[in-house]
Amino acid sequence: MTTAVAAKSNLKILVVDDEAIVRESLGGWFREDGHSVDTAEDARQALHRLAANRYDIALVDIKMPGMDGLELQARMAAASPDLTIIIMTAYATVESAVRALKAGAYDYVTKPFDPDELSHLIHRAAEHRSLKAENIRLKENIEVITTPSPIIGSSPAIRRVMDLVGTVSATDATVLITGESGTGKELVARAIHAGSARRYNPLVVVNCGALAEGILESELFGHEQGAFTGARYRRKGKFEAADGGTIFLDEVGDVSPRVQVDLLRVLEEKTVTRLGGNTPIPVDFRVVAATNRDLHGMVRSGEFREELYWRLNVFVIDIPPLRARREDIPLLAEHFLARFSQAMNRKDMRLSPEALEALQAYAWPGNVRELQNAVERAVVVGSPPLIEVKDLPVRVTGHPAGPGPSSLAECERTHIESVLSSTGWNISQGARVLGVDRVTLYNKIRKYDLKKPADVA
Amino acid sequence: MLPSGLPARAPAREPVRVESIQLVKIGPFPEGLAEDLAARLSRRVPAPCQVRASPLDVEVPWLPDRQEQVDADALLRRLEAEPVDDGAILVGVTSLDLAVPIFTFVFGRARHDGRAALVSLARLRPEFYGLPADAALTARRTVAEILHELGHVGGLRHCDDGSCLLRFAASVETVDLRGSSVCSACEAMLPAGLRRGGPG
């Protein structure tokens, strides 16, 4: 016979019909095209097969003795929500078709089947299933992407931060995150966004402290073509990019007075006017701002606009410095150790009791970020399976090994040499530990005429 | 065709012997077309093709409740009951519209590893779709359809290759779009009498 299903994928199909000719013909037709087919002559047999097997598509006759197709459809959908159900009718009646579709059937088809129509229907159903599966996969991926690194800690101080994040996330309130450098303000901002209804929309991060005034304006608000020298194209700003999502204004205390005025207007009016443009563009965003500066003090000294301060200071989350929650240091250290040892394929590494003690004793002026860097370095330079005190940065242990070099250049040379030696002259790893890029490290190697020892592969 | 229990694309356990192909007309059939089809088939397969002098003498099994459509399965069964020489395959050709109870139409019908195939001109003619008659196009399509069904007789299933003659076709557009010969994978599985390079 010349008729079979065009869909290439190998589907598992269940044909439910009390007429043997239908079961045999459809079964043969689908098998012909490489699909796996089971048949059932009544509802009881169909449910029995469904309990024992997984099917992609079920073709169900609407009229059968005992339980009819519509009731069976409901039972099948409950038992296997992923199943694509197609109802077969001897004569299409509007009511039965509507009832079937309302009850969740993918489609219905009238007997006798037009081979072309049935072929397209199965093909479309296969595509539909594939799109549904892809949609689920993508959603899961988005969940993974949008789920920020967890906030680690069990101290009362950090638990309070977590509680505040949980409270404010679901609202659309503006949040001001305060805390010293390296305490994890961006992590908290990401957690707020991830817990909000805006999580499938962008979280746009702007580091206000890193950009010069003119560039920051253009970055935030965008510009029209020809707005200034070099503006060759129209460009959307970060506020527009955050439409529907959240904009995270990091280091908001570093924004210049002029940009503060523009920022205030955007926050109040929820519209953006691009540089060189005249048309206000409505934008839907939530603001999360962060600073390590004393904004209130800056208001008093006239460095920060009071209206902007009050606009941002709606819900404040203050992140304690690491020294104020020392009990979290072991947890954090273990978390970073697990992450880096896995990333660097140095599994089963652990901290010696002395190393852990040294970590807990240190003041951590650079907070969690400094701890993270110290653990990363230790994973690189340590000899598995144990990280010892000697693997920690000197500033942490307070015990420089041996007499130190005299000049700054000598100090740099010695340190680079030591790191390269510990990484087996792996330039990428060495650059990461030193916190520089590979080009810089190569330049330093050339500058200090450092040579890879012959015994290093 | 009805399920044969064969794994997908598997050749028959015992390859079907195809030593000759006999076209047999069923019902009214255009004058000279069967001979033209036999000549065209002879250029495509090593097995010799002939037209049986006498048409199939059976009562046409009409499908109940259908507008002049013939039950293809019943007709194939009657064709298979015809006495034939060992190694000969009977190919019934008809102008009647073929269908089966569950499908509104079929272009052809054959059983895996069977001894006969059935092909209808009805929906291969451009006139069926309101287009001008084109005898050459109808003959080309019919030969392709016969070869497709002979592939099933040879034990082959439908092929995923879009250019293979064994590709499934539920519309005449697909009949035209698919290639006029089988792909190399299907070719290798065909019985010798149907293989281009095989012995006749």
User: In percent terms, what proportion of residues of chain B is strand?
Assistant: 15-25%
The percent of residues in helical segments of chain A reads: 40-55%
Per CATH, the superfamily of the largest domain in chain A is: P-loop containing nucleotide triphosphate hydrolases
Give the overall form of chain B.
Answer: globular
The largest interface is:
A-B, 26 and 31 residues
By CATH reckoning, the class of chain B would read Alpha Beta
Percent range of helical residues of chain B: 25-40%
User: Radius of gyration of chain B in whole Å, from Cα?
Assistant: 16 Å
Largest beta sheet: strand ordering of chain A = 2-1-3-4-5
Number of helices of chain B: 5
Give the overall silhouette of chain A. Answer: extended
Number of strands of chain B: 7
Helix count of chain A equals 19
Largest sheet of chain A: 5 strands, parallel
Biggest beta sheet summary of chain B: 5 strands, mixed
N-end to C-end Cα span of chain A: 67 Å
